[in-house]
Write a structure and sequence with these properties.
Elements: E1 14-18, H1 48-60, E2 65-69, H2 79-87, E3 94-99, H3 104-114, E4 118-122, H4 128-134, H5 141-153, E5 160-165, H6 174-184, E6 187-192, H7 210-218, E7 223-225, E8 236-240, E9 246-250, E10 263-266, E11 271-273, E12 282-283, H8 284-289, H9 294-307, H10 312-315, H11 319-323, H12 329-332
The structure holds S-adenosylmethionine (SAM) and iron/sulfur cluster (2 copies).
Length: 334
């Protein structure tokens, strides 16, 4: 089936699937630890079969890349089976996984055997105390480092590290994170702190811009800009002049990229969101469970995508926009 375009002429190329809303961390910018969270029950979450059926349906709409996320995707007991089944879907260009890395050492070999090519590990600090604080007191720096080493040893490469940097919180971690990436031959991608969800007490003063991050990096490293790998790639990439790996900058706040946003997001509950900052999604899972055929599901998704006009980041500082309720990040993944 041909590619579909939304009302702003953006194709649907990427599908992000949240495998679970549950997480073993409480990152301050995503699930602040001071809140109580209510999670979905087993029946409310998409089953293995439903996830794979969704991937096949989305594939028919010319989706090229699938990213597994969460919550923490490695908390799904059937994670390897899910990866293996998606790896068998014909014609997908890429299947990727974003994890906080805590359980990665245990899973890396089986993920590789299941057909995963590479992995993205979120890590916001190299200093163990700063790391503990960023993860809401739950993460073990040592376990994440073991996860990164094991992923590299298993060939889940090129490995990417995602780091959220907040002004006056962990900006002193920028250079150590770049040193770590260089040492491991990995790419560290700095994501500007975003106003996702309704709980992280975001203020624009807390954002350390990509421009400032790059300036900081250039005080110690020689980096050269690289061309984007594909249309809609969100990070601006730089490589080290004298080593493997590199740096990526995701300027979601200071240089929004809505005009080339090709991502649809399926929550663990099987709701389709057309933007990270959407208030509501469309419940596809209930339609599927009520017996909709593949053709009916395709029609439903097409209708949603045709109508899509989201461009939250480009309108962020418009009052009406920033005051409305938004879906929480751990429901739909990054
Ligand atoms: N638990 C997994 C992890 O942390 O890698 C996957 C889900 S997590 C929601 C996906 C990505 O979203 C992570 O890299 C995380 O750093 C990023 N993220 C979460 N909240 C964010 C925020 N407020 N601003 C920028 N990035 C955020
Ligand atoms: Fe969990 Fe990932 Fe959110 Fe951190 S960013 S709380 S690891 S879902
Ligand atoms: Fe895409 Fe929404 Fe982010 Fe814009 S704000 S890039 S439309 S997810």
């Amino acid at each position: 089936m041909a590619e579909i375009k939304d009302s702003l002429q953006r194709p649907l190329k990427d599908l992000r699937i949240s495998l679970t809303d549950v997480c073993n961390f409480r990152c301050t910018y995503c699930m602040p630890p001071e809140y109580d969270y209510k999670f979905l029950n087993e029946k409310q979450r998409m089953s293995f079969e439903e996830i794979i059926r969704f991937v096949r349906i989305f594939k028919q709409l010319a989706v090229e890349r699938v990213r597994l996320t969460g919550g923490e995707p490695l908390l799904r007991p059937d994670i390897e089976e899910i990866v293996a089944a998606i790896a068998e879907v014909d014609g997908l260009k890429d299947i990727a996984l974003t994890t906080n890395g805590q359980l990665l050492a245990k899973h890396a070999a089986r993920l590789k055997a299941a057909g995963l090519k590479r992995v993205t590990v979120s890590l916001d600090a190299v200093d163990p105390f700063a790391f503990k604080k960023m993860s809401g007191g739950r993460g073990s720096y040592r376990s994440v480092m073991e996860g990164i080493d094991e992923a590299i040893a298993q060939g889940l490469t090129p490995l990417k590290i995602n780091s959220v940097i907040e002004n006056n919180v962990n900006e002193e971690q920028v250079l150590p994170l770049v040193r770590l990436a260089k040492e491991k031959g990995a790419t560290v991608r700095f994501i500007e702190f975003m106003d996702v969800g309704n709980k992280n007490n975001w203020h624009k003063e807390d954002v350390l811009s990509s421009k400032e991050i790059l300036k900081l990096i250039e005080t110690e490293f020689d980096v050269i800009p690289k061309d984007p790998a594909f249309y809609g790639e969100v990070a601006s990439h730089y490589k080290f002049k004298d080593g493997e790996g590199g740096v990526g900058l995701i300027s979601s706040v200071t240089q929004p990229f809505c005009s080339s946003c090709t991502r649809g997001r399926l929550s663990a509950q099987g709701h389709l969101y057309t933007c990270l900052f959407a208030t509501e999604g469309t419940d596809l899972l209930t339609s599927m469970r009520n017996g909709a055929s593949d053709d009916e599901m395709l029609e439903l998704i097409q209708e949603i995508w045709y109508k899509r006009k989201d461009r939250y980041s480009e309108e962020r500082f418009n009052q009406k926009q920033s005051r409305r309720g938004k879906v929480e990040m751990f429901h739909i993944g990054g």
